[in-house]
Amino acid sequence: MPDTPLPRLRFAHLPTPVEPLPRLSAALGGPALWVKRDDQTGLAFGGNKTRKLEYLLAEAQSHGGRTLVTTGARQSNHCRQTAAAAARFGFGCILVLAGSRPEGTTGNLLLDSLLGAELVWAEGEDRLVCLQRTFDKACSDGRRPYLIPYGGSSPLGAAAYAEGMAEFLSQGLDVDRIVFATSSGGTQAGLVAGARIHGFGGRVIGISVDEPADALRAKVASLAGETASLLGHSLKFEAGEIGVDDRYLGDGYGVMGEREREAIELFARTEGLLLDPVYTGRAAGGLIDMVRRGEIGRQERVLFWHTGGTPALFAYADRLAPPDRR
Ligand SMILES: *Cc1c(COP(=O)(O)O)cnc(C)c1O
User: Fold this and answer.
1) Which end of the chain has fewer CB within 10 Å, C or N?
2) CB of 164 closer than 6 A to ligand 1?
3) Residue 76 to residues 82, 173, 195, Cα–Cα distance (Å)
């Protein structure tokens, strides 16, 4: 372990509960399923970015930052949680969002403006180029920006999920595998590093929502190594040992298909548990498919790590509940 623990602000609602999903398990004919409720971490409807922000906000403060600057998709959960953290700790907040301002405002986008974030639309420009320009301008305007990387997935952000793994293991539930949605890779890198550091022997399977498995495995492996190193452990991770499943990309990032819709309905109707259309709906759809194919055995014990995202449900209302189904 490092000599001193990483600086961290404490605002997440931790530990998040681990709950059994008996009616969902029965509906699928096994395996035994549990959920870890990282949709309940706090910060304006919660989600996995809240854990990362505990560390990132501590660094922003210690660097004398006054304005948080980050980037994401139009319905970014990361941006919404960052905006909430900024409000809570008295930072300004600038969000560089992909694309152009939509007609309406709903879901996370509504919350971003309620939380007082300034929105910069990248329009046709490359989002990272726009981000750099926005950051430089905030600098020259004397706003002391602190840059939070995409998805909060620096080694510092990912360290929160190594700690999250320790938290889960301390809750005393023994599982064969953990399944969750993976995208910028910070959550998975942290879980993988935490699994090695704290001795979790089961499988850690990220369902990719937007990237081919090979690229994501390499990214997660190197980030897991950097994360472990930040935590004082010299460990090496090979891309081949990172569990990423890219069979459920469907029509691409943010495009909700029948698989996601079915998963959202099944979780809602068997357990009263809400998923989201972009991340957890896709991951749960993958989990359900693996059970149906027999790739996950009926006798297995499986944890679904819920990473949040539920405000985006409202942005997909028309497709989730089309007129003929209301
Ligand atoms: C950001 C996000 C993820 C992916 O986490 P990464 O650390 O970026 O891989 C999964 N689920 C939800 C709801 C998210 O907002």
Assistant:
1) C
2) no
3) 10, 31, 27
